[in-house]
From TrEMBL:
CDD domains (alphabetical): YcaC_related
Cited InterPro entries: Isochorismatase-like_dom, Isochorismatase-like_sf, Isochorismatase_domain
A Pfam family matched in the record: Isochorismatase
Domain of life: Eukaryota
Protein name: Isochorismatase domain-containing protein 1
Residues in Isochorismatase-like domain copies: 15-162
Family: Belongs to the isochorismatase family.
Coiled-coil segments on the chain, per record: none
């Protein structure tokens, strides 16, 4: 009988949030970009409230601009933003954050390039990767859809922003539950994911 795979349960003590390349220059090209930004801000806010380490990268910012201001405003004061030219977020400056981290919550763009390559690298390093599908997009629905399939087949966990946020607090008895609950009082915006079969 095959061994049963352990559930990769997230909590603030064993998780980090990775925010991949949510830069201003992509605004006109990425499907559902405003909605992805809104959803990403919720996750950034949750990470700040729960003191979860957050890593932010920018792909070639000289040419592609910087992180969307709405997201920058939500970051904890000590959050660093790292430049990169490699597609993956697993670059030397981000390695320190990964020490003693079991789970990486991954959001950003593009699904089929930087998010996918980051997922592969993190999985190869032994981390559980929780890809928040309503906070990840690409320029085309086709690339986005098949990127999610590739990530899941590789071993990533596909999840949603609300499931992630509530999973981090674990219950209404968490001391910061009410503060976190405010982030999801309104449902996350539609990002064109249902039904996936029609993307």
């Amino acid at each position: 009988m095959a061994a049963r795979k352990l559930i990769a349960r997230i909590n603030p003590s064993n998780s980090a949030l990775f925010v991949c390349d949510l830069q201003e220059k992509f605004a006109s090209n990425i499907k559902y970009f405003p909605e992805i930004i809104t959803t990403s801000r919720r996750l950034i806010d949750a990470a700040r409230i729960l003191s979860i380490p957050t890593v932010v990268t920018e792909q070639y910012p000289k040419g592609l601009g910087h992180t969307v201001p709405l997201l920058k405003e939500g970051l904890a004061e000590n959050t660093q933003i790292f430049d990169k030219t490699k597609f993956s977020m697993c670059i030397p400056p981000t390695e320190d954050t990964l020490k003693n981290i079991q789970n990486v919550i991954l959001i950003g763009i593009e699904a089929h390039v930087c998010v996918l390559q980051t997922t592969y690298d993190l999985l190869e390093r032994g981390h559980n990767v929780h890809v928040v599908v309503d906070a990840v997009s690409s320029r085309s629905h086709t690339d986005r859809h098949f990127a999610f399939k590739q990530m899941e087949q590789a071993g990533a966990i596909l999840t949603t922003s609300e499931a992630t946020i509530l999973g981090l607090v674990g219950g209404s008895d968490h001391p910061k539950f009410k503060e976190v609950q405010k982030l999801i009082m309104t449902s996350a915006p539609d990002t064109g994911l249902v039904p996936l079969s029609k993307l």
